[in-house]
Amino acid sequence: MTSSPVADADIQLIQKIIPHRYPFLLIDRVTRIVPNESAVGIKNVTVNEPHFQGHFPGIPIMPGVTVVEAMAQTAAVMVGLSLDMVNSEMLVYFMAIDKCKFRRKVVPGDVLELHITVKRKGAKVWKFEGAAMVGDEVAAEAEFTAMMDNPGD
Fold this sequence. Notes:
CATH topology: Thiol Ester Dehydrase, Chain A
Structural class: alpha+beta
Shape: globular
Oligomer: single chain
CATH architecture: Roll
Number of domains: 1
């Protein structure tokens, strides 16, 4: 656990924890962080994101895989803070995505809330439960397993 838990991570702190950058950094903020337990990521969906050029022309819909990736990035920030891995060059790799369901389109103008809960944690492998919400509606849900790796170790 971190020596000083952070309840909120802005974009500058997020970029000190995970290596993702434009156009693949898919979260703007992480809030309600409870180390080793849960967090809520925030993604402000805007029409100028590159995937909307082709998904779909004239009918912009955020690809489901990027919604799941945003959940994983939220989980990685929570883990990075939980393990005090700010500025550590930590990488996170998907190992499994289970029980994934898409329930609502995510479109420009939506504020996507990515609710993440830890189901199981280990030294390097963690399992999460996630729900992507737009207001009170579930847009997507999944369980996913990820491995945390620090190439410097």
